[in-house]
């Protein structure tokens, strides 16, 4: 970690102008500070000698006003400079990453952190630290030259002690480097955990594991707090060391000056100038130390970004449309070969090539290798630029038009409408808003089949010569398949099309077929349980056993621990009381600084009268005490206040996660992943920052101002009133600045949320982005982020202008206070009511308190930012849950299932508690439902059904008629708007929500696999399951071959799962859960015929009730309930093979 890396200016051109402007302004401000010290010494010495005050007063006030104008200009530039540089860096990162295969980029979690928090850390680094670094290189030399002219001996002392400061800074900084890296690792854990948990929150809610994750979130927050406080201790220590060294050095100057004054060997004005000028030589380096903790984050971010800022050249593609694969092999990290020694070639020109083979054979991986999204482990791939329509199409929040334009920015509306008509989606969209129909994150608002059609339409509008389709018919109704087959065949007449499919009818249309075999098993030399699919699961533990243990983001064996309390935590356990302590300590630190300057002035003037040295000892001890107390107290205040803020942040983040749980999935779901991550990370940071950046410094400034006004007023009442009035005016200016900035802060927080949300979504799904846009051609998406950047930059400019005005006005108040108090002190000295030493104390006090006054605009700005962030959080959490919460207390554990009113037994075949009498497990009576609480039309038309114990039910029908919506109602993820839903004889809203959900297992159409081990992903459904239970469940869903290839068995971390493997893993969870009812959303959509048959055979065993949405084959023993659109058939009550009705085309 370097204090400054010139590569920043070379690789990020946007940084050059802001850094140059801020550096010039910093040097100019330092120069004015030197001139101000000279003029203030002139004013003080003139006051205590009774001279003419006009000239020194005029120069001092003018310099302060000029310094205020420069400070205002600095604030105006700094407010947007860091934002501009961060925006440019984020765009460069995404453009570079979009041109690299997955193996050459950071892992998604790390990439998200770098593109969000990492880039954000550059803002204070550029806006504050680098200008301070430049000023530290120039201003001390200027101060030293000025001091050399004033007093050679004082200059010599400064010359000898000044080099010690950077040496101390370097020694402390080397330790800070390691601490910062540890903190960044903790931030990576935090970002990765939230990203993974938010994605999988519907799964956690479905299996009753979300509350367990609350403790995990708290633990991750604790780790973040510990790592951050450890880093801050070291970073703040640099500030203390530099300030103590500066204090000792200035004390040496003061001793030299004081002794020479006492013996009459020095003029008072020269002595006063030397005393006030010496600190200015050390101040720029002290400021660098004060900004060091910002530099630590920013410099570490720059070092980690490294070559990521270097632009890449899009990969060259061969001419023609021939695809050649030569002895290709690919292996996911920690896995056996997915593909091995594969050699395939397509004919030249257009045509249709079909990839077939069992699930998990590597068909999707091969398509990604052909598209250039991955690097082969061995062999080579030659292919033209390609468009890949993935199993789960990339659909970002925005309009249908914007999502189609990702593949072809120049496509006209007519071309887009034609493509949508050809795939059969236009009718569903035209009743809404056509191309302007707004989709949520991940295509929320469309069914799985409609999402697939939209992905296929995007392939049609793309101009890529090679089109790759990954199971384009997986989620489509049977009556739609001939139309899509004809469409793919027609597309292949004009372009080369390679389609991975389990649809044998589609494969029959191909002029070339590649069958991809499963790779050979990996001999790990360990025993594995029998591959028998029907192996029974353990039933030794009751179904109602408490769900403890396990884990998701943390491994199953990780224990959630708590850190031992520190001594301060034991003495003062309340965070609010510790914050009060920090506020008091901060006020004392500020007061010590004021007292140091004022007492030093008194001491110098008193020494000029050449008294007995012993009479000065009290004042000398006071100066030493104040000089040592200021940095030590400031260090204590910072550590305590930051610890309280971080503890509060961890608690608030945990509370926020808990509040998200009842909103999942219907009110939150996949629509707001980026927004939620922004809320629980950045917005909560701003809210809790209020304690550190508002509460403590504001009350510290108020305390110091009150003490200053009282002390000055005790000697000269009018001057005390001036100090008090100036304090009030400064606070009022800060409050007015807050009102002036409030609107800009709201715009900035909103724009920042949009940028971070979009950057998070794009970065986390960059492989899918490349599939749509092509490798190295994601300009359209980066342009969307740049558009959001423009809004952020505009808000930052408005904010910085407002802040600059308030800062300039504050310095104007300081100038007026210093001038007025100086004039009053001069008049009082001439009148004989003030002695010379006291007059010096009175004159210097307003300038000493100015340091605290100058921070007031920033304090109130932080308050405005916190209020804006708090408003965003309130909007997020203001949503009402889509399901009624528990009305009754949870029944005793021994009678939880029986409380539903249905007797149970345990099925010996699969270890599942099931119903034994003739009462239905579930029944609905004319239920309607809507995903949007404000929707006028329901997404599910009236439906009545009765599901008997152990019955297998298949919901079929066209895409978009509401099959998934009905599953959501049955799972109690969505309450019906009309009608009743009952378990046994009891309406579900009269039962505890957790009790109803505990009886139902869910596997949706896009199940989530957490970034943990295989074991952790399975035990969340059944924490007490034994290893043989876990393996038996995997084999039962035809994952035996996959499991046999895992290098570490159940401890293998999940990477590179195919769609079919992810679906079957979700089915294994459902089997392990031992729940009476299993809801499945197209579980065989991504499976080959053999695997699908095995899975359906497994599901057909035992007495477990199953409701399955499917467009594929079904066993003859399963009852089929075809759903039709509401416009076709009136509401019907169904108890056997009769039709159900559904809702408008937009339903899921």
Automatic annotation (TrEMBL):
This is Thiol reductant ABC exporter subunit CydD. GO terms for cellular component: plasma membrane. SUPFAM superfamilies: ABC transporter transmembrane region, P-loop containing nucleoside triphosphate hydrolases. Keywords: ATP-binding, Membrane, Nucleotide-binding, Transmembrane, Transmembrane helix. Residues 538-547 have a biased composition (Polar residues). NCBIfam families: CydC, CydD. It is a multi-pass membrane protein. Residues 525-551, 1129-1148 are annotated as: Disordered. It is found in: Cell membrane. Residues 323-543, 922-1148 form the ABC transporter domain. Its main location: membrane. The keyword Protein biosynthesis does not apply. The chain crosses the membrane at residues 21-45, 57-81, 129-147, 153-173, 232-255, 579-605, 611-629, 716-734, 805-826. One of its GO terms (molecular function) is ATP hydrolysis activity. Residues 20-297, 581-865 form the ABC transmembrane type-1 domain. One of its GO terms (biological process) is cell redox homeostasis. Pfam families: ABC_membrane, ABC_tran. SMART domains: AAA (SM00382). It comes from Ornithinimicrobium ciconiae. InterPro entries: AAA+_ATPase, ABC1_TM_dom, ABC1_TM_sf, ABC_CydC/D, ABC_transporter-like_ATP-bd, ABC_transporter-like_CS, ABC_transptr_CydD, P-loop_NTPase. Signal peptide: none annotated. Gene3D superfamilies: ABC transporter type 1, transmembrane domain, P-loop containing nucleotide triphosphate hydrolases.
């Amino acid at each position: 970690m370097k204090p400054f890396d010139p590569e920043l200016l070379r690789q990020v051109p946007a940084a050059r102008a802001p850094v140059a402007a801020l550096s010039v302004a910093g040097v100019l401000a330092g120069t004015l500070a030197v001139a101000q010290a000279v003029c203030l010494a002139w004013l003080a010495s003139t006051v205590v000698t009774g001279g003419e005050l006009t000239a020194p007063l005029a120069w001092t006030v003018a310099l302060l006003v000029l310094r205020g104008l420069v400070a205002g200009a600095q604030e105006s530039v700094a407010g947007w400079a860091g934002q501009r540089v961060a925006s440019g860096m984020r765009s460069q990162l995404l453009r570079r990453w979009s041109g690299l295969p997955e193996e050459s980029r950071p892992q998604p979690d790390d990439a998200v952190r770098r593109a969000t928090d990492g880039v954000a850390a550059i803002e204070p680094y550029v806006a504050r630290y680098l200008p301070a670094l430049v000023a530290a290189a120039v201003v001390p030399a200027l101060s030293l030259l000025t001091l050399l002219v004033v007093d050679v001996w004082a200059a010599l002392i400064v010359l000898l002690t000044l080099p010690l400061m950077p040496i101390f800074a370097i020694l402390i900084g080397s330790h800070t480097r390691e601490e910062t890296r540890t903190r960044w690792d903790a931030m990576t854990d935090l970002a990765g955990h939230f990203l993974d948990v938010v994605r999988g929150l519907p799964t956690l809610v479905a299996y009753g594991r979300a509350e367990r994750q609350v403790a995990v979130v708290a633990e991750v927050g604790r780790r973040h707090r510990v790592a951050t406080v450890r880093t801050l201790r070291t970073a703040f220590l640099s500030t203390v060391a530099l300030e103590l060294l500066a204090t000792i050095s200035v004390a040496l100057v003061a001793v030299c000056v004081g002794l020479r004054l006492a013996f009459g060997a020095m003029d008072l004005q020269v002595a006063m100038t030397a005393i006030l000028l010496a600190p200015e030589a050390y101040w720029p380096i002290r400021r660098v130390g004060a900004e060091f903790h910002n530099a630590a984050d920013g410099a570490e971010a720059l070092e980690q970004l490294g070559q990521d800022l270097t632009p890449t050249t899009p990969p060259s593609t061969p001419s023609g449309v021939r695809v050649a694969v030569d002895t290709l092999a690919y292996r996911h990290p920690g896995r056996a070969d997915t593909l091995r020694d594969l050699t395939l070639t397509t004919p030249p020109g257009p045509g249709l090539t079909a990839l077939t083979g069992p699930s998990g054979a590597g068909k999707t991986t091969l398509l990604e290798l052909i598209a250039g999204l991955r690097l082969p482990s061995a062999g080579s791939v030659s292919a033209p630029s390609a468009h890949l329509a993935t199993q789960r199409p990339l659909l970002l929040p925005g309009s249908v038009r914007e999502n189609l334009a990702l593949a072809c920015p120049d496509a006209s509306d007519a071309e887009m409408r034609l493509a949508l008509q050809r795939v059969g989606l236009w009718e569903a969209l035209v009743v809404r808003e056509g191309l302007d129909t707004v989709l949520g994150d991940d295509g929320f608002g469309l069914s799985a089949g409609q999402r697939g059609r939209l992905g296929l339409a995007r392939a049609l509008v793309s101009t890529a010569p090679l089109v790759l389709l990954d199971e384009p018919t997986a989620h489509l109704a049977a009556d739609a398949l001939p139309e899509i087959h004809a469409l793919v065949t027609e597309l292949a007449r004009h372009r080369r099309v390679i389609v991975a499919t389990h649809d044998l009818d589609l494969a029959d249309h191909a002029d070339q077929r590649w069958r991809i075999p499963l790779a050979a098993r990996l001999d790990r030399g360990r025993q594995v349980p029998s591959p028998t699919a029907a192996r029974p699961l353990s039933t030794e533990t009751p179904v109602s056993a408490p769900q403890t243990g396990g884990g998701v983001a943390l491994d199953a064996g990780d224990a959630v621990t708590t850190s031992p309390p520190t001594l301060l935590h034991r003495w003062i356990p309340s965070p609010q009381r510790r914050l009060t302590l920090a506020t008091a300590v901060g006020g004392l630190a500020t007061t010590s600084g004021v007292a140091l300057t004022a007492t030093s002035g008194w001491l110098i003037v008193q020494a000029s009268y050449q008294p007995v040295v012993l009479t000065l000892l009290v004042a000398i001890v006071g100066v030493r005490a104040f000089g040592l107390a200021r940095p030590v107290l400031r260090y204590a205040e910072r550590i305590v206040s930051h610890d309280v803020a971080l503890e509060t942040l961890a608690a608030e983040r945990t509370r926020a996660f808990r509040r998200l749980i009842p909103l999942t999935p219907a009110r939150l779901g996949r629509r707001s992943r980026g927004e939620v991550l922004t809320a629980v990370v950045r917005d909560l940071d701003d809210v809790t920052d209020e304690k550190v950046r508002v509460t403590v410094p504001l009350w510290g400034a108020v305390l110091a101002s009150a003490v200053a006004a009282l002390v000055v007023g005790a000697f000269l009442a009018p001057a005390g009133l001036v100090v008090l009035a100036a304090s009030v005016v400064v606070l009022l200016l800060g409050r007015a600045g807050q009102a002036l900035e409030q609107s800009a802060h709201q715009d900035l927080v909103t724009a920042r949320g949009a940028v971070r949300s979009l950057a998070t979504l794009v970065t986390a799904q960059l492989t899918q982005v490349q599939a749509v846009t092509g490798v190295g051609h994601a300009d359209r998406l980066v342009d969307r982020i740049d558009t959001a950047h423009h809004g952020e930059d505009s808000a930052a400019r408005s904010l910085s202008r407002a802040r600059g005005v308030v800062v300039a006005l504050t310095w104007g108040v300081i100038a007026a206070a210093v001038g007025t108090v100086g004039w009053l002190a001069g008049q009082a000295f001439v009148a004989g009511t003030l002695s010379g030493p006291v007059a010096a104390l009175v004159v210097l006090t307003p300038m000493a308190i100015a340091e605290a006054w100058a921070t007031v605009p920033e304090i109130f700005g932080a308050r405005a930012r916190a209020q804006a962030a708090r408003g965003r959080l309130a909007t997020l959490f203001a949503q009402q849950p889509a399901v009624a919460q528990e009305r009754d207390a949870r029944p005793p554990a021994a009678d939880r299932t029986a409380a539903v009113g249905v007797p149970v037994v345990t099925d010996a075949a699969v270890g599942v508690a099931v119903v034994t009498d003739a009462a239905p497990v579930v029944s609905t009576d004319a239920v309607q439902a809507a995903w949007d609480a404000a929707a006028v039309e329901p997404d599910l038309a009236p439906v009545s059904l009765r599901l008997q114990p152990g019955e297998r039910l298949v919901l079929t029908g066209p895409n978009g008629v509401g099959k998934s919506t009905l599953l959501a109602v049955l799972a109690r993820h969505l309450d019906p708007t009309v009608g009743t839903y009952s378990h046994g004889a009891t309406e579900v809203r009269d039962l505890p929500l957790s009790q109803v959900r505990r009886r139902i297992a869910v596997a949706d159409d896009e199940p989530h696999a957490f970034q943990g081990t295989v074991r952790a992903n399975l035990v969340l459904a059944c924490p007490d399951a034994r290893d043989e239970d876990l393996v038996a469940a995997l084999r039962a869903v035809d994952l035996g071959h996959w499991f046999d290839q895992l290098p570490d068995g159940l401890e293998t971390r999940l990477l590179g799962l195919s769609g079919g493997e992810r679906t079957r893993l979700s089915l294994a969870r459902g089997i392990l859960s031992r729940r009476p009812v299993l809801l499945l959303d197209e579980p065989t959509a991504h499976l080959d015929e053999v695997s699908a048959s095995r899975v359906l055979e497994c599901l057909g065993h035992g007495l477990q009730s199953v409701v399955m949405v499917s467009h594929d084959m079904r066993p003859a023993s399963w009852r089929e309930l075809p759903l039709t659109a509401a416009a076709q058939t009136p509401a019907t009550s169904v108890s056997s093979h009769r039709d159900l009705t559904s809702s408008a085309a937009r339903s899921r």
